[in-house]
Design a protein that fits this description.
The protein is of the alpha/beta class and 385 residues long. The protein has two domains: 134 residues, Alpha-Beta Complex (Aspartate Aminotransferase, domain 1), CATH 3.90.1150.10; 238 residues, Aspartate Aminotransferase, domain 2 (3-Layer(aba) Sandwich). A seven-stranded mixed β-sheet has the order 2-8-7-6-5-3-4. A four-stranded antiparallel β-sheet has the order 9-10-13-12, with helices on one face. A hairpin with a 6-residue loop joins strand 9 and strand 10. Helix 3 packs antiparallel against helix 12 and helix 5 crosses helix 11. It is globular and about 65 Å long.
Length: 385
């Protein structure tokens, strides 16, 4: 038996997220779980609302038959209708539940989009720096990820660079706002310029996994702008970040047309987001005050981390998400390795041209103190002999 070439290649290179999980497991085995501080992945540090726990317990304890059965392929209509109704009330936009496609996180949604869209050799453009899993999502379905450079000083779009990498094979452009890994937020003007630069026969994909963080920071909702676009578009959001529900894997795609929604529904596997996960997600929507509390707490600790990095001579970029990216004056790989010997796991930007950039997820106050203390030791100049 032989393993398919793309998977064999993937095993050799290993995705960034897989590497981080494995590194965290090794460190915990080496130092003990209570001695390891993991800032590598965007895991939520605060628990979801109590309503989620109550709902899931009630569902599991309910003696009525049928909870374990297959459900509608599109997901529970009540969840999709709730999300569509929120958009109608908040934005005054004519969304219906048929425009909402539930998926296994925003990442699962991107996989579905790629499956529905790509033929072998088709190209998808991402703006650098980008979420490293994009390359795997595109590769999974025979596509090729091409990269458009952004302005080095602030990571804002460079339209000339974008136009230079687009070809007749370009089927989609992905924009991530707030950006992962920088945490930067695209303004309405930025997105309008990008939307205008995307050909009308190409799909404009807006990855909004950190959408709630953007609104908390005063950012505008991009949906009215997307609705005004003449070409196709899709926005992807998730319950993983602001709602603290990364482990239950529920996201959703907001589709710019019935044809796109139908294509994405049919591209999904038949048995998709599970019933328990949807129940938990729906319960989280009943306590938006708790979600806002999570955002408040995260922003407070993020700002403290940002200021601590500045005090150490690093150059953090403004972030509205639950992580901070900072440039340092030495190779990031060396600092990541030195921190690992102290039981602290962070990540770095993996794309060429960003070798001196660290990415640190926001943790608790104690987590931040441990990280900054260790980084102080590592960045300290050598003692004079």
């Amino acid at each position: 038996m032989t393993i398919a070439a793309p998977i064999a290649n993937s095993l050799q290179r290993a995705s960034w997220i897989r590497q981080m999980f494995e590194a965290g497991t090794r460190l915990k085995q080496q130092y003990g779980a209570d001695q390891v501080f993991d800032f590598s992945l965007g895991n939520p540090i605060l628990e979801p609302p109590a309503k989620v726990h109550e709902t899931l317990h009630a569902l599991l304890d309910d003696p009525a038959p049928g909870h374990h059965r297959y459900m509608p392929n599109g997901g529970f209509p009540a969840v999709r209708e709730y999300l569509a109704n929120e958009l109608r009330e908040e934005q005054g936009l004519s969304f219906e539940k048929e425009d909402v496609v539930l998926c296994v996180g925003a990442g699962g949604g991107l996989n579905v989009v790629a499956k529905a869209l790509l033929e072998p050799g088709d190209e998808v453009v991402a703006l650098a720096p980008y979420f490293v899993e994009y390359g795997f999502y595109v590769q999974n379905h025979g596509g090729v990820l091409t990269v458009a450079k952004t302005r080095q000083e602030d990571f804002l779009p460079d339209l000339e660079a974008l136009e230079a990498v687009m070809t007749p094979k370009t089927q989609a452009i992905i924009v991530n706002s707030p950006n992962n890994p920088t945490g930067g937020l695209s303004s309405a003007d930025d997105l309008a310029l990008l939307s205008a630069a995307v050909p009308e026969d190409a799909l404009f994909i807006v990855d909004e996994a950190y959408y709630e963080f953007a609104r908390h920071a005063g950012g505008v909702d991009h949906l009215p702008l997307l609705r005004a676009r003449r070409g196709p578009w899709v926005s992807l959001r998730t319950f993983s970040k602001a709602f603290g529900l990364a482990g239950i894997r529920v996201g959703y795609a907001l589709c710019g047309s019935d044809a796109l929604a139908d294509a994405f529904q049919n591209a999904r596997s038949v048995f998709n987001v599970n019933a328990v996960a949807q129940a938990g997600a729906r319960a989280a929507l009943d306590d938006l005050d708790h979600m806002r509390w999570i955002l408040d707490q995260t922003a407070r600790e993020r700002d403290r981390l940002h200021d601590g990095l500045i005090a150490l001579g690093a150059r953090p970029f403004p972030s509205v998400a639950n992580f901070v990216t900072a440039a340092i004056d030495r190779p990031a790989a060396e600092v990541v390795a030195a921190l690992a010997t102290r039981g602290i796991l962070i990540s770095r930007l993996m794309q060429p041209g960003y070798e001196n950039y660290l990415r640190i997820t926001v943790g608790t106050a104690d987590d931040t103190d441990a990280f900054l203390a260790a980084l102080t030791e590592i960045l300290a100049p050598p003692a004079a002999s």
